[in-house]
Amino acid sequence: MVKAIDEFRRKALLGGEWDPAGGASLKSYFTTACVYAFPNVYRKWSTDFNRRRRESARSMDLEGLVGTATTTPNPADAAVTRLEVKRGLAAIADERTRQALVLREAGYTVREIAESLGTSHGTIKGLLERHRRTADQPVRDGGGNA
């Protein structure tokens, strides 16, 4: 709105672009100015918002991400859950896979995770699928007694 008001004031009132004989009322001219200003302002806001969100996701440490996924109200349960999550995450070598798993558990969509981590939807989908496949494989002790 602020951008539209500035443009309206500059062009219509000071610049003389609005003409009462032109058929559009001052109200219509202003409304149209708002409609035309919106897409550019929104694109700029959206770009800035997504950039800040990606930077925020990159700067999150693993400890902060683990806290994001914990929703248990009981403090003792929360402590045990955090320890279990930390142990499970420590077994995953790839940092990006760990971040994607924590964000997914926190309720983010694959597309949102991709935006946050600065990668593609397909990359995150592949990471999660590969992790799921390897996590479903039975662990062998090497002695042949599976």
Automatic annotation (TrEMBL):
<keyword id="KW-0731">Sigma factor</keyword>
<dbReference type="GO" id="GO:0016987">
    <property type="term" value="F:sigma factor activity"/>
</dbReference>
<dbReference type="InterPro" id="IPR013324">
    <property type="entry name" value="RNA_pol_sigma_r3/r4-like"/>
</dbReference>
<dbReference type="InterPro" id="IPR036388">
    <property type="entry name" value="WH-like_DNA-bd_sf"/>
</dbReference>
<comment type="similarity">
    <text>Belongs to the sigma-70 factor family. ECF subfamily.</text>
</comment>
<keyword id="KW-0805">Transcription regulation</keyword>
<dbReference type="GO" id="GO:0006352">
    <property type="term" value="P:DNA-templated transcription initiation"/>
</dbReference>
<dbReference type="InterPro" id="IPR013249">
    <property type="entry name" value="RNA_pol_sigma70_r4_t2"/>
</dbReference>
<dbReference type="Pfam" id="PF08281">
    <property type="entry name" value="Sigma70_r4_2"/>
</dbReference>
<dbReference type="GO" id="GO:0003677">
    <property type="term" value="F:DNA binding"/>
</dbReference>
<keyword id="KW-0804">Transcription</keyword>
<feature type="domain" description="RNA polymerase sigma factor 70 region 4 type 2">
    <location>
        <begin position="95"/>
        <end position="131"/>
    </location>
</feature>
<protein>
    <submittedName>
        <fullName>Sigma-70 family RNA polymerase sigma factor</fullName>
    </submittedName>
</protein>
